[in-house]
Amino acid sequence: SVAASQITPSSAVAGGEVQSDGGLLVTERGICYSLTPNPKTSDIKVVKDGTLGYFSCTLSGLIADTKYYFRSYAINSNGTAYGDELFFKTIAENGISDVDGNYYNTVAIGNQVWLAENLKTTKYNDGIGIPLVTESSAWSATTTPGYCWYNNDSVTYKNLYGALYNYQTVNPATNGGKNVCPSGWHVPKDADWAILTTFLGGDSVAGGKLKEVGLMQWASPNTEATNESKFTALPGGHRYIDGRFLNRRYVAYWWSITDDSATNAWGIYIGYSYKYSVLTKFGKQNGCSVRCLKD
Q: Cα separation of 240 and 31, whole Å?
């Protein structure tokens, strides 16, 4: 199965790959989905023409702000084979989109309104592209704006975790006065993160209230994750200054636009084995996630 994309309040695109027919003709392939885990072809399905290779299907008529489970499948005379189970959540009716056409749910926490998922855009909101930097040596040498996907794999990680941006990308003082967030939104300051964690009871407990519940994304034990904030933090990891990708499933990292020094800026992280959150300094050449805050 391939991670869902182009998610809107009422539709999504999901796909898969039939790598082998086992020597027998594939008579049907497609995507099956449901509101509960382990969907089967007896649930809702979308059939796609063809036999072997990659395919994608548009799932339509979906309910806004709802979690769906899906699997690819293929049928031959031996029976039905299923791909890995994945899930996505449709966008709420009051969701917003970025300049790339990615849709996002939003969530009100105290007096703030946040994106309820990480930023995925490859352009500033004026339509100017952000350079994609894939090679480790280029990433470690870059002192200008750049982004990437975890493990340079947008198919697997874009929809789940969003993009990883260096600090030069997110700070208007270093990117030519541009805004990486949708119009009417901005990358938070360090003080904005502090307002959020204070509202949730302080740094000692805020991490648990921000994290998605369960072990589908977070590594065990995902200590005291309640997601009572509906922020739905996921462990997208980061890209270290030497170009390595680290800590997926273990840690979530987000930028602020607050400078500390010529080489460091402030951000926040939360982890799998504790309930606290940490406001700290990251090297500016790290690749971290972005959560936008409404103006």
A: 36
